[in-house]
Structure formats: structure tokens, C-alpha cells
């Protein structure tokens, strides 16, 4: 099986997370992703530790776990973009590329003669994806955008956390850089769509991606609740604003999540709890009824579920047809039989690792007639500079050495 993007070359001028997350997905799909890094330290996230990968002597390397999470399957080339010769290397690489991904401030690369107009003039088939906090237009366009800021502006923190008036109330940051990650995914989607457009027209295009746009775009049902209902969504803690019961419940020795998405599942739950009469109680017959009386219903369910241990409910409810799960810490997630069966932890080759490999979270996409190839772990800084410049641009060792001598690489 071949990878879906075999033969596609991506010039990756991005760093931190949103851009690298996008290009890692493209690399997983088989694209040749050439990661351009500043010779002086490279991607900022290389130093975002601990933890760092340890070498065979147990010493920390310069490879931070954060950096390694988003740069698998790429080749690292160091280029000084302030050097005229360095900029010329980028132009020559762009002529051979299908896609450029960058997350400089608005206009930052254009000042260097490496903006979309500049590179697309050299390669009209080029797809040039710019990722910024606020996009290429609008009053905040010049400002840098970080995930935390976008979570605050975009509204996710206003609906995440305990409700007002309860212990620990207040807006909370989501525990992952979710705006960066989703922008990386949307950017991947946009690039794939642009590649298909190019197949039909022969033309590349500029893609303008903004973290704030993406965040607002995936407000989804909460935005529609506001548009249609006219009520600003609030923090609801562990329960769902549109479904009940759909929350954690206490057991004899812990908690489990019960998630009833329809009336049929609720009826089964009432039978398993030994209170089938609840299914006919006017307060609980339909989803809107249960939402209106969620506190009373939660109290009844809690009283019944406390009578038995977690494992009883985790086994019995799914067998009966009621969605139920535990509340895992990350270590327990990777011990889940389903996660193991789906191959969501993989070992990827790395030259500094004492075992020769490092663990990675697998790409979750499963193709029937293509493959995800885990060719290499996140590259060391400049690991592939000589290789890429020789292979792609045809430069000999003497020319590469001369460029290094001038500070271009």
C-alpha cells in the first residue's frame, strides 16, 4: 500500500504547534515535509521541557517531548532567513514544493520577499497556507495570537468549568492547546481541498487560517443554542446542556460516566438501576423533560448507582446498551484494551534513544487502501540539511559548506 500523499512536497516554515500539527498530518499521509528551522535553536518547542528525551547515558537531550509530539516524519533543514543566500535557498525549495505552511506574523515573510505573492510568482501551482492568531485581515490581524488568548476570546472558557455559585466556579482553560490543534486539523483539510482544486484547475492558492476563526467555527451546537434559543450558554461543569442523564455519577468505589443520548437508552438504564417506573414518570419521559428536571433525576440515579462498584456498572451498562465509561488519567487511557487494540501507541525510530525508538501517539486515521507510515521521529535540528539540499536542489558538498560558512545555513 502507498501513502495517500506520496510525491507531495511540503515546505514547512512553521513552528510551535498549529502549523507543525498540520504538517505532521501531511507527513503521516506520506508527504515529504521539509521543516525549515532557524540555525540558532530551531523550533521554540525544542526547549519546552522537561521532559526531554534521555540518551543512552540517561542524560537529557535537546529533544523536548512537546516538540516531538508534533514533528514526526519530517526532515529538518536549518536556514537563516535573514541571509540573502538563505532566502534564495527558500525560493529554490519553493519552486519544487507543492505546499508551503507558515505561521509568521501577518506580512512577516512578505518583508523578506518570501510571502505568498513572491513564492507563487515563482511557482503558480504552489498552495501557500498562512496560519496566524487572527487572520490576514481585521483590526487584530497584526497581533500575535496564542492558544490561551484565543480560548478566552472565542468563548470556550466561558462554558468550561464549574457553574457560578458552586465550589471552584469560574472559567477554565481546556487542558490541551485545543485552538492550535484544531487549527492544524482545519489547515490540513484546507490544504487537501486546495490540492484537489489544483488537480482540476492547475492553479495553487493562498489559504488564510486564523486560530480565532477556527475556534468560533467549532462552537457548533453551543453557538446554535445561542442563535436559536437567545440565551448565552453558561458553564455547566460535568453535565451536558442538552442531554440528561449525561454526566458522571458516584458508585460504591469511584465514579463512572453515563451518557444517555435517547429515550430508549434511558429506559434501559432505569431497568438496570431497578427503577423502571422512572421511564414513565412525567418528569423524565423525554429528553426535554429530563433536562428540565435534571437535578432530581441525577439525585435518584446517584442513590441507585452508589449501591454497586464501578466495575459492575462499567460491565453491565454497556452490555445492556447504555453508554458508560470510566474517567481515565492519561496513563490509564493507554492501558485501555480498546486503545491497545486500535494501535494508538506506536514506536518510531530515533537515533538518540537507547532503545532505538521513541513512543508516539499514533495518527488516528485508518485507511483501507493506503497507509500511515511512521518513518522517523521528530528530527534533530538540521539533521537533514545536507541531505535535502543535495537531493532536492542538487547542491554539492562544497556549495553546502560555503553556505554554512556565510551563515546562510
TrEMBL record:
<dbReference type="InterPro" id="IPR050483">
    <property type="entry name" value="CoA-transferase_III_domain"/>
</dbReference>
<dbReference type="InterPro" id="IPR003673">
    <property type="entry name" value="CoA-Trfase_fam_III"/>
</dbReference>
<dbReference type="GO" id="GO:0008410">
    <property type="term" value="F:CoA-transferase activity"/>
</dbReference>
<dbReference type="InterPro" id="IPR023606">
    <property type="entry name" value="CoA-Trfase_III_dom_1_sf"/>
</dbReference>
<dbReference type="Pfam" id="PF02515">
    <property type="entry name" value="CoA_transf_3"/>
</dbReference>
<keyword id="KW-0808">Transferase</keyword>
<protein>
    <submittedName>
        <fullName>Crotonobetainyl-CoA:carnitine CoA-transferase CaiB</fullName>
    </submittedName>
</protein>
<dbReference type="InterPro" id="IPR044855">
    <property type="entry name" value="CoA-Trfase_III_dom3_sf"/>
</dbReference>
Amino acid at each position: 500500500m502507498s501513502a495517500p500523499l506520496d510525491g507531495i512536497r511540503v515546505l514547512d516554515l512553521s513552528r510551535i504547534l498549529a502549523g507543525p500539527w498540520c504538517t505532521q498530518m501531511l507527513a503521516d499521509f506520506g508527504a515529504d515535509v521539509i521543516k525549515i528551522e532557524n540555525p540558532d535553536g530551531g523550533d521554540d518547542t525544542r526547549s519546552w521541557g522537561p521532559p526531554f528525551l534521555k540518551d543512552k547515558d540517561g542524560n537529557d537531550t535537546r529533544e523536548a517531548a512537546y516538540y516531538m509530539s508534533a514533528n514526526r516524519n519530517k526532515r529538518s533543514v536549518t536556514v537563516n532567513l535573514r541571509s540573502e543566500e538563505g532566502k534564495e535557498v527558500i525560493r529554490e525549495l519553493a519552486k519544487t514544493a507543492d505546499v508551503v505552511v507558515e505561521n509568521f506574523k501577518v506580512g512577516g515573510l512578505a518583508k523578506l520577499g518570501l510571502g505568498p505573492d513572491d513564492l507563487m510568482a515563482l511557482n503558480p501551482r504552489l498552495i501557500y497556507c498562512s496560519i496566524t492568531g487572527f487572520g490576514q485581515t481585521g483590526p487584530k490581524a497584526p497581533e500575535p495570537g496564542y492558544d490561551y488568548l484565543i480560548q478566552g476570546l472565542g468563548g470556550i472558557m466561558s462554558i468550561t468549568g464549574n457553574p457560578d455559585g458552586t465550589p471552584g466556579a469560574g472559567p477554565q482553560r481546556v487542558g490541551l492547546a485545543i485552538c492550535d490543534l484544531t487549527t492544524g486539523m482545519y489547515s490540513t483539510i484546507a490544504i487537501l481541498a486546495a490540492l484537489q482544486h489544483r488537480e482540476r484547475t492547475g492553479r495553487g492558492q493562498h489559504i488564510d487560517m486564523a486560530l480565532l476563526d477556527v475556534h468560533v467555527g467549532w462552537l457548533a451546537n453551543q453557538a446554535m443554542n445561542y442563535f436559536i434559543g437567545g440565551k448565552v450558554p453558561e458553564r455547566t461543569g460535568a453535565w451536558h446542556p442538552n442531554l440528561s442523564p449525561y454526566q458522571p455519577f458516584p458508585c460504591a468505589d469511584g465514579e463512572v460516566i453515563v451518557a444517555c443520548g435517547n429515550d430508549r437508552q434511558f429506559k434501559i438504564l432505569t431497568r438496570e438501576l431497578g427503577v423502571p417506573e422512572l421511564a414513565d414518570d412525567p418528569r423524565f419521559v423525554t429528553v426535554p423533560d429530563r433536562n428540565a428536571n435534571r437535578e432530581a433525576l441525577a439525585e435518584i440515579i446517584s442513590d441507585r448507582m452508589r449501591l454497586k462498584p464501578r466495575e459492575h456498572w462499567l460491565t453491565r451498562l454497556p452490555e445492556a446498551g447504555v453508554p458508560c465509561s470510566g474517567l481515565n488519567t492519561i496513563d490509564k487511557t493507554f492501558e485501555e484494551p480498546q486503545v491497545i487494540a486500535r494501535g494508538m501507541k506506536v514506536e518510531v525510530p530515533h537515533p538518540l534513544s537507547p532503545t532505538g525508538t521513541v513512543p508516539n501517539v499514533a495518527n488516528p486515521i485508518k485507511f483501507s487502501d493506503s497507509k500511515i507510515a511512521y518513518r522517523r521521529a521528530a528530527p534533530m535540528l538540521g539533521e537533514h540539511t545536507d541531505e535535502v539540499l543535495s537531493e532536492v536542489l542538487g547542491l554539492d558538498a562544497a556549495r553546502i559548506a560555503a553556505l554554512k560558512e556565510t551563515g546562510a545555513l
